[in-house]
Amino acid sequence: MAKREISIFSAMIRPRSPETGKEWVSLLNRTEDEINLNGWVMRSKNGRKAVLQGRVGPGRMHMIGGADIGTLRLGNQGEDLMLRKADNVLVDHVTWTREALLRGGPGIFYEFELGR
Questions:
Q1: Edge-to-edge, what's the strand order for the sheet holding 24-29?
Q2: DSSP-derived secondary structure letter, 15
Q3: Span 73-94, mean pLDDT?
Q4: Where does the pLDDT of residue 91 fall: very low under 50, low under 70, confident under 90, or very high at 90 and above?
Q5: I need a surface site. Which of 6, 10, 76, 91 has the fewest CB within 10 A?
Q6: 65: closest CA among 115, 116, 11?
Q7: What is the predicted pLDDT for the residue at 2?
Q8: CB environment 28-61: b (16+ within 10 A), e (fewer)
């Protein structure tokens, strides 16, 4: 895995119903430089993906949701989510379980960054 310049910070995996169009993922730029995300891909274990666009400033968050989330769906039964640069280098990877989502309830976002 490459140095984590960008990390998958949090996600709304199980929004309050209806879920269509309400899932999102946030990325955190951990560097002191602006990073160009054009061509980066976020992919789930089932192969669904979001092709990223845009730039994220140093220390800033970048939200991916709505039409920008592409075919990516965040699994309520558990999931693996990978973030890769345009050259396919793995930048970050997160996992969650159904049990963890049920503990939090619907409409609560899931934060991955703590303790990493």
A1: 61-65, 24-29, 6-12, 110-111
A2: P
A3: 91
A4: very high
A5: 76
A6: 11
A7: 56
A8: bbbeeeebebeebbbbbeeebbbbbeeebeeeee
